[in-house]
Amino acid sequence: MYPQQVHQYLKGFFAENECPIIGEENHSLTVQLTVDIDKRIMNRPFYWQYVEATNSEPNPAQVTFITDQTAMAGNLFGEVIHYGSPRLNQLFHATGELGAYVQLFEKVDHAMGQVILTPWLGVNFKVSYCCDRTKEMLYSFGINLLTGVIKEDFHESIYASDFDTVPADNVFHVQYIIKPVRALERLNAAVESIIEQDDHTWAMEAQKRWQRDQRVLDYFYEDVEDKPECYEIERKALEEQYESKIKIDIINGGLFYLF
What we know:
This protein is about 40% helix and about 30% strand. It has helices spanning about 5-15, 35-40, 45-55, 85-95, 155-160, 180-195, 200-220, 230-240, and strands spanning about 20-25, 30, 60-65, 80, 100-105, 115-130, 135-145, 150, 165, 170-175, 245-259.
């Protein structure tokens, strides 16, 4: 999971949860958290217990997240966030808690008169390449539920748009032709196609490391005719450590009616 992907994920998460982005550079993001998001990710339950017990004015945190430490210029105080960091895992968990599915309607100017909105299914995927090392990639796809056209980087394409949970009075939203469950199958196929075309030398390298460590293990037991239970335990541990797996997870998604 690259720094730019982490950066875009943070922007989307905080924007969708109404946390104002106060400052932004290519490598960092300064955010004013809401009370709800502070409670979910900042790990300060005793502070919030005190605020609620004393009926004090809440003061949610303002945080600077550094998404690319190598690109920093000068001294910047903040929290470094990257794949595998506890904070990013908290954000993934919060995304699931806050609802993995939404239905939103793009806001349009009433002066435009009657407006037709087209249904899109948008899904954010996380692809994990797992062995003794792990790499994660984020992909955002949208599919037009009338035409079947698939758009990459869908989240970025709608990021600047305003949405509401109910359509405006001057809006007519077209009923979809392609059922969302079928559309999701197409998006899954698009992600699988990317995986198939990717470089998988990582799996072969993991296999080599596995064979190397297996040879070392066998060496210690080469004169033992009946291998003890501990040998089987260690052999199984090597298999679990080095076996190559690819996992596709849906982070969140939704039905978006776009102008």
